[in-house]
Amino acid sequence: MVIESKATESTPPGHGELKTPIPENQTTWAGPHLLDIDVLTRDEILLILDTTAGMEEVLHRRVARTPALRGVTVVNLFYEASTRTRASFELAGKVLGADVINVAGSGSSVEKGESLVDTVQTLKAIGADVIVMRHPSSGAPYLAARETSAHVINAGDGWHAHPTQALLDAYTLRKTMGTLEGKRVLIVGDVQHSRVARSNIWALTTLGATVTLVGPGTLMPRGLEPSQVHGLPAVEVDDDLDRAIVGADAVMALRIQKERMRSAMLPSLREYASRYQIDSTRLAKAAEGAPLLHPGPMNQGIEVAADVAHGLQSEVERQVQHGVAVRMAALYLLARTGE
Ligand code: CP
Known about the structure:
Elements: H1 42-59, E1 73-78, H2 84-95, E2 99-104, H3 116-125, E3 130-135, H4 140-147, E4 151-157, H5 163-177, E5 184-188, H6 195-206, E6 210-214, E7 236-238, H7 241-244, E8 250-253, H8 269-276, H9 280-283, E9 292-293, H10 306-309, H11 316-336
Parallel strand pairs: 1-2, 1-3, 3-4, 5-6, 5-8, 6-7, 8-9
Helix pairs in contact: 1-5, 1-11, 2-11, 3-4, 5-6, 5-11
């Protein structure tokens, strides 16, 4: 994949400065939004991952800039806290030459009672081509997508979905293990409140992995059985981490989301840690060199021990780095749809 950084003044904004990173015979992605993984085919996911590899190459250049999205306006609309997702979307847009505007719920007219629909229509009116949106309510980006002609990217909605996180996780795992086909990936912890888990179940199973969810029953979605429920693909479920981790090809620890929990979902964090913390003893039972992932932010000492969080098998820092390239790919591919 070749991404050409050369631009000319005569090139129309946002067009033509990239040599296409999409091989002629490969699938295309119609977009027009990225709301979750469940609407993406395997080929579309692979297209995004392959495009990500090209974006990584851009990021490794001495001057990591290309004008591929010059003339495109990206608005980051975040109604909920974020470090990684917001910063990486901002950097992704800037590396691609887009104009990037950050709007937070607090400090905007949302505080004066402006509705979500009015907000996205206002942002479109001032020129937003892509709206990257995080919202505490599941489904909010779907409403936004219905009400604006801008492309909408879901940057995390409630407990529902976090598609670019799942894509960067899949990219990280594919890079580490070569393929996801036939691999067994453990997702450990607070699945109930995890939009990351839901989107990852779609992405990983679509790419051929088997997913085992591990955690206490109180932190599993209600009624989850080792079969297809809640519209999710089939997964395995185990409440015994010491059993499930044996031979696992990869391990993903989830954050205990104290802010989303009602009382009594866990007897105590100490007991949770004793049964479900990924520590060096447990990680040693997985396949040799099995990568450890965590979407962040991490509660070190609770769902993951500090030494393995920063140990040789940890992919946590690389996940964050890959987040920029994945978001570049998503912005680039979406902004091209409808051309
Ligand atoms: N993984 C993730 O979404 O992190 P942030 O909340 O910091 O964006």
